[in-house]
Design goal:
By secondary structure, the chain is an alpha/beta fold. The chain has 14 helices and 12 strands. The chain binds D-mannonic acid and manganese (II) ion. D-mannonic acid binds next to strand 4.
């Protein structure tokens, strides 16, 4: 497994590549052209500049998170072929620059959703949290205002203001959309991009929907083992794979995380490791990465990845804000660095015990 950290680029991140370089065991970053809107073409030159910047700091560009999919493709609208063509151009730019991993998601309108970006914990740290009661009290537009007001003035991935300004119209366009239609649109998209992925050996890694259930009446499909296996079969090409994000699939306690990992052998291209602590079935917060701080057995998760021979990039996902750090919610340096060190410790222990 290749330990990495996500980096939002010198324009947006509060963290530098030099800092990332000093986290023990981290040799790569996961990044993107964060100023690109969904549907916009990435050029080879832009990708090259990004890669050069990362490499100049002594790090590897281990993968892209994300090339966002335009809503027209998710809706299956009249212009989807145009946007798929643009997506293919972007994949070519990435492939030409010898990058072989692209994370993306297929969530309608919204990316991940939390109801609290800075909930105070017992130890004085803050963490992102989700409470069903708070969601029930919101509608999509006030939700956006709430998220924006809470983000330390930072750019929240997936919550770009330009995109969400038109949230109402977007909602209208999704009217009548159900899980089956969304699945068919995802299949259509994947079938069309597989040839370019084959050509450049690009692993597509779909990120799960977070939380793993429908929100505001919008369908969500990448939520459990059954659906994801169905998708793997529907487009049965190893380049059609997944990002295993423990914190997203884990929002539904019915998802058996180690079991899911084992059933997806060969199709996991990227792993996000994070822990959640459930305070009740309807309320969770993003704990530190340690098993003892949350509800997941992190050892079992890492062991399952090890057992299936997963050797791709892995990164600690959202961390808490600690030691007075201010940054992009979930993406400060300190707690993610602790997470990387802890996960590396698990990996070393598992590796050595296997050799004995
Ligand atoms: C999130 C997402 O859990 C996560 O990693 O921060 O924003 C994620 O990056 C996207 O859904 C991937 O497309
Ligand atoms: Mn994730």
């Amino acid at each position: 497994m290749e330990m990495t950290l996500r980096w939002f680029g010198s324009e947006h991140d509060t963290i530098t590549l030099e800092e990332i370089r000093q986290v023990p065991g981290v040799r790569g970053v996961i990044t993107a052209l964060y100023d690109k809107k969904p549907g916009e073409i990435w050029t080879r030159e832009e990708v090259k500049n990004l890669k050069d910047e990362v490499e100049a700091a002594g790090l590897k560009l281990s993968g892209i998170e994300s090339i966002n999919v335009h809503d027209e493709i998710k809706i299956g609208g009249p212009e989807r072929d145009y946007y798929i063509e643009n997506y293919i151009r972007s994949l070519e730019a990435v492939g030409e620059e010898d990058i072989h991993l692209v994370c993306y998601n297929f969530m309608p309108v919204f990316d991940w959703i939390r109801t609290d970006l800075a909930r105070k914990r017992e130890d004085g740290s803050t963490a992102m949290a989700y409470s069903k009661a708070a969601i029930d009290a919101l509608n999509p537009e006030t939700m956006f205002d709430a998220m924006e007001g809470d983000a330390n003035g930072a750019l929240l991935p997936g919550w770009e203001p330009e995109r969400l300004a038109g949230v109402k119209e977007l909602f209208d366009r999704y009217r009548g959309m159900d899980c089956e239609k969304l699945f068919a649109n995802l299949k259509y998209f994947l079938e069309r991009i597989m040839p370019v992925c084959d050509k450049y050996d690009i692993n597509m890694a779909i990120h799960p929907d977070d939380p793993a259930w429908p929100i505001f009446g919008l369908p969500r499909i990448i939520i459990n083992e059954e659906n994801i296996l169905r998708l793997m079969k529907a487009v049965d090409n190893p380049h059609n794979g997944i990002t295993f994000c423990s914190g997203s699939y884990g929002t539904n306690p019915k998802n058996n995380l180690p079991h899911m990992i084992r059933s997806l052998k060969g199709r996991i291209h990227f792993a996000h490791i994070r822990n959640l602590r459930f305070n009740s079935p309807d309320d969770f917060e993003e704990a530190s990465h340690l098993s003892s701080d949350g509800s997941f057995d992190m050892y079992e998760i890492v062991k399952a990845l090890f057992d299936i021979g997963f050797d791709g990039p892995v990164r600690p996902d959202h961390g808490r804000m600690i030691w007075g750090e201010k940054g992009i919610p979930g993406y400060g340096l300190f707690d993610r660095a602790l997470g990387a060190a802890y996960i590396n410790g698990l990996i070393e222990a598992i590796e050595k015990s296997r050799r004995e």
